């Protein structure tokens, strides 16, 4: 596996070295972007700059932003009584800016909603901190970060949850994501609206996920992501949000892949999931694509997590017994999502997802299909929108459980600055 990762990184470096460089005359748009606080690893989409404060001598700047998602959901189950759920799904505060020099950047994001913080358990850390990262950005191409933020995973995961077309990410993003971690982040990119563009994201991290402080060890996780835009960069940083709100006047295409290797993972999903009583080396592959043109948007993604033996037994446990057995979530998933934005700023969205866990882990993780359709009304781009979504979840029968399905109808209001 180490040889595979080394070979992958070597290919990436040689590919980047061979890519064409945009001329000075064609870098006007990119130069303008550098004037804003724009760090590739940060999972944010924003319309405008939020509430900003800058000292008179321009040695310090802070931008303050918030984001809130309020939702109500009616759920119909095939195996139990229906239910109505109303909640604050997300409530976030974000602070970013620079200290001393615009090259020295920082970003902080805090979460307060129950779904973000999680259940409080004795001996566990409170998950209020989502991002706390320092970045040195010597020029508009390079950024070097240290701290806790999102790993460079697939496009939907890297994008902010506030920049989604439907009310949540796909079921495969929930299962196969590599999410946030603490580590060192190095990014390099060359983007031009009219020429071949690309970004290279890399990270070396703990592999344990956000706010993890128990039982430190020397096992690390290694991540590399390459993004190619053969038809030029998207307008208004269009890779950072779903849907073609920029109404691209010419087709724009993103092709990307991520390779992640987590040595000695201790949780069922690497950076996420419940703790196990054993370790496994996990290999994650994400492949994704995005196409936008004149209000149309199409996204696709394939995800995989593998390990040599996903089942962990306590020494005294009987093989196949539920007690004393832990399962790492391994398998594959596929998503496809399409949408059209009308001139009235109403948008129609459809998504299909299929998840296929490996046979060894189906006692704990079931195969699943999900069909979603939605209508979104953008009042102020993704910063203020109304969303209505209808979703059907289907779980086929397995050797360990009967078939079941559910429907939900959800209304959500998203607002933020």
Question: Can you characterise this structure?
Answer:
The protein is mainly beta and 417 residues long. The protein has one domain (2-416): Porin. The chain contains 5 helices and 19 strands. A 16-stranded antiparallel beta barrel has the order 2-3-4-5-6-7-8-9-10-11-12-15-16-17-18-19. The longest helix has 17 residues, at 2-18. The radius of gyration is 22 Å and the shape is globular.
How would you classify the helix and strand content by structural class? mainly beta
Helix content: under 10%
- Biggest β-sheet strands, sense, barrel: 16 strands, antiparallel, barrel
Q: Estimate the mean pLDDT confidence.
A: 87
Unreliable residue runs = 11-37, 43-47
Number of domains: 1
> So what's the oligomer here?
single chain
The number of helical runs is 5
How is the CATH topology named?
A: Porin
What would you report as the Rg, rounded to the nearest angstrom? 22 Å
- How much of the sequence is in beta strands? over 45%
Could you give a short description of this structure?
The protein is mostly beta strands and 417 residues long.
Structural topology:
Blueprint lengths: L1 H17 L9 H7 L16 E4 L5 E18 L5 E17 L1 E11 L2 H4 L11 E8 L5 E9 L4 H4 L12 H6 L3 E11 L6 E9 L15 E9 L22 E18 L2 E22 L2 E11 L4 E3 L11 E3 L3 E11 L4 E12 L10 E13 L3 E12 L8 E13 L1
Antiparallel strand pairs: 1-2, 2-3, 2-19, 3-4, 4-5, 5-6, 6-7, 7-8, 8-9, 9-10, 10-11, 11-12, 12-15, 13-14, 15-16, 16-17, 17-18, 18-19
């Amino acid at each position: 596996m180490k040889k595979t990762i080394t070979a992958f990184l070597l290919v990436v470096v040689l590919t980047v070295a061979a890519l064409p460089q945009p001329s000075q005359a064609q870098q006007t748009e990119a130069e303008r972007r550098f004037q804003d606080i724009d760090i590739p690893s940060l999972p944010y989409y924003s319309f405008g700059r939020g509430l900003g404060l800058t000292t008179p001598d321009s040695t310090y700047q802070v931008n303050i932003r918030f984001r809130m998602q309020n939702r109500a959901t009616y759920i119909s189950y095939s195996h139990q009584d229906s239910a109505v759920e109303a909640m604050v799904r997300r409530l976030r505060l974000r602070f970013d800016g620079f200290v001393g020099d615009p090259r020295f950047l920082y970003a902080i994001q805090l979460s307060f909603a129950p779904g973000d913080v999680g259940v409080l358990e004795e001996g566990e850390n409170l998950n209020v901190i989502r991002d706390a990262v320092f970045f040195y950005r010597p020029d508009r191409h390079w950024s070097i970060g240290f701290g806790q933020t999102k790993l460079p995973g697939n496009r939907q995961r890297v994008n902010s949850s506030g920049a989604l077309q439907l009310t949540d990410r796909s079921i495969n993003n929930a299962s196969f994501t590599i999410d946030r971690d603490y580590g060192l982040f190095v990014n390099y990119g060359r983007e031009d609206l009219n020429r071949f563009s690309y970004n290279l994201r890399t990270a070396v991290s703990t592999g344990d996920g956000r706010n993890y402080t128990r039982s430190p060890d020397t096992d690390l996780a290694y991540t590399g992501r390459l993004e190619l835009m053969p038809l030029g960069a998207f307008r208004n940083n269009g890779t950072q949000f779903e849907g073609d709100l920029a109404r691209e006047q010419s087709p724009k295409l993103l092709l990307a892949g991520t390779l992640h290797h987590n040595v000695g993972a201790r949780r069922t999903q690497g950076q996420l999931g419940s703790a196990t009583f054993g370790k496994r080396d996990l290999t994650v592959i994400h492949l994704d694509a995005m196409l936008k043109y004149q209000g149309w948007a199409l996204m696709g993604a394939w995800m995989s997590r593998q390990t040599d033996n996903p089942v962990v037994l306590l020494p005294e446990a009987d093989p196949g017994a539920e007690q004393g057995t832990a399962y790492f979530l391994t398998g594959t998933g596929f998503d496809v999502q399409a949408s059209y934005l009308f001139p009235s700023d109403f948008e129609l969205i459809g998504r299909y997802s299929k998840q296929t866990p490996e046979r060894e882990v189906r006692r704990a993780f079931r195969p699943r299909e999900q069909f979603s359709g939605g209508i979104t009304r953008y009042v102020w781009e993704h910063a203020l929108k109304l969303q209505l979504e209808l979703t059907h979840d289907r779980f086929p029968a397995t050797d360990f459980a009967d078939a079941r399905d559910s429907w939900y109808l959800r209304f959500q209001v998203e607002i933020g600055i």
